[in-house]
């Protein structure tokens, strides 16, 4: 499954373009621009499954760095500052990784 089967290519492009500059990525804004905030909880979990590159049920910091590239292969990697900010915003139980429920709560809140 690809992200473009859940989100429109135009919306993904718009979201990626909005955060091209280093340290300009804001997860909440990105989720809104790409249309993820308007999707069902089931679709949000499908997106999480795509982002969980190693399939262990969590998105760790190493996977988070390449978050934008999961949406668009030519996109930049997140900076360390952006990665740590994203992790701290989504990791409700402070275990150093984002679970599906934490991701869904962040996207749909």
Task: Kindly summarize this structure in a few lines.
Helices cover 53% and strands 6% of the residues. By secondary structure, it is mainly alpha-helical. This is Parvalbumin.
Q: What descriptive keywords fit this protein?
A:
single chain; 109 residues; mainly alpha; two-stranded antiparallel sheet; 7 helices; 2 strands; 6% strand
Rg of Cα set? 12 Å
Into which percent range does the helicity of residues fall? Answer: 40-55%
**Envelope shape:** globular
% residues in beta strands: 5-15%
Element-level helix/strand string: HHHEHHHEH
Mean pLDDT over the residues? 96
Taking the alpha carbons of the first and last residues, their distance comes to 25 Å
Main sheet strand line-up:
1-2
Main sheet attributes: strand count, strand direction, barrel closure: 2 strands, antiparallel
Give the number of DSSP strands: 2
Query: Which stretches are low in confidence, meaning pLDDT under 50 for 5 or more residues running?
Result: none
Question: What structural class do you assign from the helix and strand content?
Answer: mainly alpha
Number of helices: 7
């Amino acid at each position: 499954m690809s992200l473009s089967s859940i989100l429109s290519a135009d919306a993904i492009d718009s979201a990626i373009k909005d955060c091209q500059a280093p340290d300009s990525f804001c997860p909440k804004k990105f989720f809104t621009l790409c249309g993820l905030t308007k999707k069902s909880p089931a679709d949000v979990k499908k997106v999480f499954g795509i982002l969980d590159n190693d399939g262990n049920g969590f998105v760790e910091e190493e996977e988070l760095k390449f978050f934008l590239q999961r949406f668009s292969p030519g996109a930049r990697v997140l900076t360390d500052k952006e990665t740590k900010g994203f992790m701290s915003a989504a990791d409700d139980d402070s275990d150093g990784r984002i679970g599906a429920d934490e991701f869904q709560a962040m996207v749909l809140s």
